[in-house]
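Thread: Newbie trying to understand structure tokens

Hi all, I'm a second-year student working on a class project, and my supervisor (Dr. K.) asked me to get a predicted structure for one chain before our next meeting. I've only ever worked with sequences, so writing a 3D structure as a token string is new to me. If someone could post the tokens and maybe explain what I'm looking at, I'd be very grateful. Here's the chain:
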Amino acid sequence: MHDIVRIKYELNENGTVKIRIFDFGMNQVREIENDTYSAGTYEAVWDGIDDYGRKVANAPYIYVIEMPDRTIDGKILVVE
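---
Reply by user tm_fold:
Sure, no problem. This is what the structure looks like when written as tokens:
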């Protein structure tokens, strides 16, 4: 992982978007979005820091994007 990870997504309808990062044990590492947006294309940024302000360990992580009409996920690999 470089300094930041950019996660692009498209919101098909107005509504709340929640984006969370989990470790492979599905323990939440960071919530990076939890707000209401208009339909459109967006980009969320994760800086590799957890909810407690600590740099995360080298490991694979999962991001989950919850939107009004669907939930999508993907993987991030942190290697330094």
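A couple of things are worth pointing out once you decode it. The chain has one domain: 5-78. The beta strands are 5-11, 15-23, 28-37, 40-46, 59-66, 71-78. Feel free to ask follow-ups in this thread.
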